Amino acid sequence: xxxxxxxxxxxxxxxxxxxxxxxxxxxxxxxxxxxxxxxxxxxxxxxxxxxxxxxxxxxxxxxxxxxxxxxxxxxxxxxxxxxxxxxxxxxxxxxxxxxxxxxxxxxxxxxxxxxxxxxxxxxxxxxxxxxxxxxxxxxxxxxxxxxxxxxxxxxxxxxxxxxxxxxxxxxxxxxxxxxxxxxxxxxxxxxxxxxxxxxxxxxxxxxxxxxxxxxxxxxxxxxxxxxxxxxxxxxxxxxxxxxxxxxxxxxxxxxxxxxxxxxxx
Length: 265
Ligand SMILES: Nc1ncnc2c1ncn2[C@@H]1O[C@H](COP(=O)(O)OP(=O)(O)OP(=O)(O)O)[C@@H](O)[C@H]1O
Description:
The chain is an alpha/beta fold. The chain has one domain: P-loop containing nucleotide triphosphate hydrolases (Rossmann fold). About 35% of the residues lie in helices and about 25% in strands. The chain has 11 helices and 10 strands. It has helices spanning about 5-10, 55-60, 95-100, 115-125, 130-145, 150, 165-175, 195-205, 220-225, 245-250, 255-260, and strands at about 15-25, 30-40, 45-50, 75-80, 85, 100-105, 180-185, 210-215, 230-235, 235-245. The strands form 2 sheets. A 6-stranded mixed β-sheet has the order 6-7-8-3-9-10, with helices on both faces. It has a 4-stranded antiparallel β-sheet with strand order 2-1-4-5. The longest helix has 14 residues, at about 130-145. The protein is globular, with a radius of gyration of 19 Å. The chain starts with 5 loop residues before the first helix and ends in a 5-residue tail after the last helix.
């Protein structure tokens, strides 16, 4: 086993989508992520929890190289997606982000029609051959995002004219339109009311049938509701990773216990 390469080991366990080994992230000279090792499973929702500033978003952004867009940010270590190093020189970050989609805290639809918001990704990646195929992808993505019935009669209206919850579901439709394998969600419900939050949570549960989902959340209730695995971060360290029920009922590390019982936050 020890003679196997990291790639071979990751491939052997087929259910592992991402394998991160000894990951460090620096902003200038300051180290925001320290020696993180984690396997992220396919067709599973993994929640990242932890106090503000502990590095949840920084680590999430490593998984689709969004940190590349921050000049002072440097990532070290190995991050393998299906056994392939996503930081390899031959990997095109734009192609990677089609495979590893992202939904942000604040809904950020493009200043375009509802249709064009969803059609944008498939168009730039050449995923459809004609208008009929594109129409199909737009409809199926909006259905997956539980938004189709609300917008099917106004696909030409601007995406920015939708309610906050609808805009976030539009962003989810946009992310799933390129048929990603992984969906990263950075506090996707923080700008939403409880009804829209419930809709997005329901959606996350459905999406896990097809994708690996990683969600950063400040809400422990949300982590408990939507995820099967939970990772607790503290001061840039991954303190504990386990089944969500175990993390919330029987944490192994005293820091995890302090956080979930509200003693550190
Ligand atoms: N663009 C940046 N430039 C410099 N430092 C940054 C940058 N982004 C984050 N950091 C620092 O990295 C550390 C981790 O931040 P990060 O946003 O990843 O934490 P977080 O756990 O997601 O926090 P929150 O829950 O408040 O969103 C913090 O100390 C933060 O100040």
